[in-house]
Amino acid sequence: MSERDASKEASQSFRVPGMGSIDTTRTITFTFDGRIYEGHPGDTLASALLANGVRLVGRSFKYHRPRGILSAGSEEPNALVELRTGNRREPNTKATTVELYDGLEASSQNRWPSLAFDVLSINQLAGSVLSAGFYYKTFMWPAAFWEKLYEPVIRRAAGLGRAASEADPDSYDKVTAHCDVLVIGGGPAGLAAALSAASAGARVIIADENPELGGRCLAEKRTIDEMPSAVWAKHAQEKLRSTNEVRVLTRTTVFGVYDGRTYGALERVSDHLPVPPQHQPRQRLWRIIAKRVVLASGATERPMVFGENDRPGVMLAGAVRTYINRFGVVPGRHAAVFANNDDAITTIADIQRAGAEVVAYVDSRKELSPAVLAVLSEAGVDAILGGHVESTTGTRHITGATVRTADGEIRNLPCDLIAMSGGWNPNLQLATHLNARPHWNETIAAFVPSALPPGMAVAGAANGLLTLAEALASGAQLGIEAAHEAGRPAVEARSYSTTPEASSIAPLWRVPETKGKAFVDFQHDVTTDDVVLAHREGFAAVEHLKRYTTLGMGTDQGKTSNVNALAIMAALTESTIPAVGTTTARPPYTPVAIGALGGAHRGRDFKPERLPPSYKWAREQGAVFTQAGLWLRPQYFPRPGERDWQETVFREVDTTRNAVGICDVSTLGKIDVQGRDAIKFLESIYINNWGSLAVGRARYGVMLREDGMVLDDGTTARLGEHHFLMTTTTGNAAKVLQHLEFCRQCLWPDLDVQLAPVTDQWAQFSMAGPKSRDLLRKIVDSEFDISDAAFPYMAAGEVAICGGLKARLFRLSFSGERAYEIAVPSRYGDALIRRLMTATEEFDGTAYGTEAMGVMRIEKGHLGAAEMNGTTTAYDLGLGRMMSDRKDFIGRTLGSRSGLMDPDRPRLVGLRPINPKHKISAGAHLLPQKAHRTAANDEGHVTSAAFSPILGHTIALGLLKRGPERVGEIVGVCDPVRGRDILAKVVSPEFFDPSGEKLRG
Amino acid sequence: MRINCPCCGERSLDEFVYYGDADLRRPDPQDEEAGAKFIAYVYERTNPSGFHRELWYHGLGCRTWIVAERDTRTHEIYATCRAVDGGAPEGAAADRERS
Amino acid sequence: MVDQLITLPAFPAPSIERADQVRIVARENVQIVGITARERETESLVLAFRAVYGLDLPMKPARVEKDGLAVVWAGWHQWLLMSDVAAVPDLEQIMRADFGGYAAVVDHSDARAIVAVSGRRARDLLAKGVSIDLHPRVFTTGDAAATAISHVGMHIWQTDEKPTFELAVPRTYADSLWRWMERASAEYQNSDSLL
């Protein structure tokens, strides 16, 4: 049949009427590789495919071998499909966990041109070169081949599925939850634990990855308290859902354990629906803080390792029972069961009840208990004890099993299903996320948790208690204990009655003689031969084995393969399994999409946005905004007819220098500093002196880190005897506050100093330019004298504006012009900027943004973040003379150490291109004029550059070795990134009004 | 990880900023060997495996500097207190004498 | 007092209503004054405050209220005092006059924006952005905390059992947080919300 044949298949011929617990009264349709099939609500994609007789669902990673469905849960290594289409397309979803919905579209991946005929399956003929470590051996050289040849070919050939190429249209959510008891897993142990904890009145969260609680209660034909186990589970779930303080999270995987009793869980809120309902997220990330945890995550069945064990039709025995008992689907008509333990025996009855034939029961053990023998005899099955399945036959699906009996006889059993069981591994990953090593339990031949994360207890199969009775009893008891330890009253654990079951095992890690490839890790195509090769080549340690063979590194994280592999390695090294040990399980337990981790924080909401008080007005003006930390600041204010940003910025600078410009400077950090020791405090954190600062005056200050590097700069005004207002740069506000709190609390706790961040309190606008005082006069109430005599440069004080509104006025300048900053409570900021802009019309003034501000500050040689970059000292930046020698201050000692006083250090200079048409860009390197353009000759770099409309050419600030001594020298400015190499003259960093006449007016 | 702020109670790690060794004492700048002592104060760390007294800042909370006694291997926090109360006992005492 | 300049509300809308599940109301026109005890003056401040207002400044995260004046613990020996603009014309001045000797008094009326979140799903909504436990067994009327919402530092307290929580958030984040609350509460328009 071709892929284009979209006719409906003969419907669900493997569905068994009357079996399973899903709703078969409703039929829904879905497509797989373009063909339409039918299923029922409650199906997984895997159960629906099996119901329709579809066994070939994918191609393997390396050899492109045909693969079917191995499991019925999240451990699935084989049945990975692309789900949905377009911008919701999702690769590598497990058919065994995808819930069927009407209209579901899935396609197989890793095949070309079609699933049935895959060209690259030829890889398996070349198996010898694709063996373990082949990446390391084959693609070593020539190095150039890697990028051009190997990688593209490997990427096309291997790789699993394709991600959507457009943005995900769905939303994701994050929630924090607190509880007394978190129960992880909703199987019999988890249900019993949650019921216990709930009966003690605890705040309980029970999470399970399936759509319903129940776990193996739904998959097995068992009895609890005289009820079918599935019915009991249903009652238990209803009871929990109706109990106060119990939260039932289905479709939720607890994927990680973190320090501080914190657990990560992913709830698939809408994954079972075609599209999330309105206002609902696709997935929700839970951060759960739990006083106590009962881990009841169950166990995962191990495959048997024999030849051609990866062929579709070879399935875990427990999965076969799940498909029969939960979904009413029998995965084959003629089944062989191959096991090494008692648990698999129940598979026989389930298969027979589903109307299929069990052609043989093969058990690697020679001797079985009388009870088990009785079951076999009652079933009337051909039991081959002490035998092995050595290989399978078939192409895209098995047609038979080759069995060697205990006597060495070879028998070919025709069958279309092999149900295998190598025993069960407790799902102990979460118990080891904080680095605990598990303990080997000989009785069940598996690792069990040993040391546990604080507050965790492990119940049921996850703790190696593999029978139903043990699961219920341990869950009930641990639930009570957990609730009590979390502070709830002690209550009695109730008991549950179940039917007895056998559970002994004699491990068989690999069938001794096999034909064909015997797979250990299905997802990454790792065979027994690869493990043998790794051993032979010296990669015997588990961590080496993992990396050399890629075993356990697939999206399934080796849930079905790890223990088999290390047991095989133990045999090869003639060691024991506990001596070989295991690799470390790390979060997440199952894959978590990045979208879920990001939650609502994406796009515009990636980070919270801070809006300056004039934001609304600026947006109305059509301002272009830029991000400054979290702030959105106007970058420039384009006017109609202006060709580009540069023309706008020139106009803004020009207007400010010749008339008046207005800029929102509310983003500067503001910290209110009070206290009797405030002066002392400022003296200790700033390099310069503060004692002489009069009330009503402001001063520029520079603070260092203790290592002597410049931390920040800004002006601080003295508002009262013991009251100061400090300003920081926009980007450093939080960092400076933290630093000041450190100094106050950790260094000088006895000082009487109170700090309060007040950045948000004030809307502050700078008015700069020769007309700024005239503009100011228009809004400051007439009783306040703002003449140069009354309010000189660096004055600070309270005024009233616009008829009585209290405001703070500062005469500060970043632009080098006469300038004022007026501050009003933020709620008035919007009205004030409008008032100022109206008033400014008379002077042909302008608003200006960060771009023009940057130009003007470079013209003045003022420092920005590019100069105060964490590696520059006060000396480097020409501020050495500010450093007081009459006091101690943070950074003084180390800032003066000889290495930092070395005149060879790069220090601040101005740069002017020799050819005025040449452009200097930030980041360019400075070198001696004629030196080779090599790193060895590097003498510094350009930190900031801008085109100065006043001067008519580019100007720049840079850090140049021995810079200030070299004023007048011509240096090379080399910018290999932009392909520029020009000459510039070293000049003083003050390009504009160096004497400060304009400033003082 | 969760840290018990002495003012606010137990809070998640993302409310805090880590700073480092709580027992470092800012040297006396008048000391003859102030240079070497400041180098040690700023740069030299023992980086212990196990018990560590360290400073944390409850930045997204009450802005208190906290001393936490933590096991660096398990991240278990044994005790916390305000730095003012017992954070840098020697440093605080020295500074008191100086002032 | 100042009629020439009009004020701009901190939040872009007066409220968000989500059926009978959650109600989010912007509380404009609250005066907020921060006081921080001066070194070694806490005791005097507490006594003076009790004498004038009959209220004990809480020494742990809590909120107390009397005669329209609310006090919220805001850090070690720090409090936020709140009253409606209409009730007291200039809270900062009064506080400075009464307690300036014992405490640093700073006006925060425009630094913080207050929003009230109430209704039966209020806790569920806040759990999406606040990581502290607001369960009634742990946090109840009169309790307060300094923490963060959606990565923004804030103060939160509970005022009644509806329950109603009030959040004082930095004003410049108000717009961004409002957008967050609109989106986070959107699902409560559906009565069969899955959370």
From TrEMBL, chain A:
<dbReference type="InterPro" id="IPR041117">
    <property type="entry name" value="SoxA_A3"/>
</dbReference>
<feature type="domain" description="SoxA A3">
    <location>
        <begin position="515"/>
        <end position="598"/>
    </location>
</feature>
<comment type="similarity">
    <text>Belongs to the GcvT family.</text>
</comment>
<dbReference type="InterPro" id="IPR041854">
    <property type="entry name" value="BFD-like_2Fe2S-bd_dom_sf"/>
</dbReference>
<dbReference type="InterPro" id="IPR042204">
    <property type="entry name" value="2Fe-2S-bd_N"/>
</dbReference>
<dbReference type="Pfam" id="PF08669">
    <property type="entry name" value="GCV_T_C"/>
</dbReference>
<feature type="domain" description="GCVT N-terminal">
    <location>
        <begin position="615"/>
        <end position="884"/>
    </location>
</feature>
<dbReference type="Pfam" id="PF17806">
    <property type="entry name" value="SO_alpha_A3"/>
</dbReference>
<keyword id="KW-0560">Oxidoreductase</keyword>
<dbReference type="Pfam" id="PF13510">
    <property type="entry name" value="Fer2_4"/>
</dbReference>
<dbReference type="InterPro" id="IPR006277">
    <property type="entry name" value="Sarcosine_oxidase_asu"/>
</dbReference>
<dbReference type="InterPro" id="IPR036188">
    <property type="entry name" value="FAD/NAD-bd_sf"/>
</dbReference>
<dbReference type="Pfam" id="PF07992">
    <property type="entry name" value="Pyr_redox_2"/>
</dbReference>
<feature type="domain" description="FAD/NAD(P)-binding">
    <location>
        <begin position="180"/>
        <end position="434"/>
    </location>
</feature>
<dbReference type="InterPro" id="IPR013977">
    <property type="entry name" value="GcvT_C"/>
</dbReference>
Automatic annotation (TrEMBL), chain B:
<dbReference type="InterPro" id="IPR006279">
    <property type="entry name" value="SoxD"/>
</dbReference>
<protein>
    <submittedName>
        <fullName>N-methylglutamate dehydrogenase subunit B</fullName>
    </submittedName>
</protein>
<dbReference type="InterPro" id="IPR038561">
    <property type="entry name" value="SoxD_sf"/>
</dbReference>
<dbReference type="Pfam" id="PF04267">
    <property type="entry name" value="SoxD"/>
</dbReference>
From TrEMBL, chain C:
<dbReference type="InterPro" id="IPR007375">
    <property type="entry name" value="SoxG"/>
</dbReference>
<dbReference type="Pfam" id="PF04268">
    <property type="entry name" value="SoxG"/>
</dbReference>
<dbReference type="InterPro" id="IPR027266">
    <property type="entry name" value="TrmE/GcvT-like"/>
</dbReference>
<protein>
    <submittedName>
        <fullName>N-methylglutamate dehydrogenase subunit D</fullName>
    </submittedName>
</protein>
